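Subject — a protein and its fold

Tokens — whole-number codes for backbone shape
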Amino acid sequence: MTREHLIRLIAGTFVMGSLALGWFVSPYWFLFTAFVGLNLFQSALTKWCLMEDILRKFQIGK
């Protein structure tokens, strides 16, 4: 699996998980959803993604 696919999988998991936590636990978890969305927006504009750097450091993905 490529890093790009892993990043999309991780982002989707974070969004769905934080939505569930926001619904069932505390609405403050929706702030995490917003953070993930802002990070995706930022990475699209700057072509830099922190998760990509983390995956590269641990040599995960291709």
Notes: The longest helix spans residues 3-24. The chain has one domain: 3-57. The CA atoms of residues 21 and 29 lie 6 Å apart. The chain has a mean pLDDT of 96.
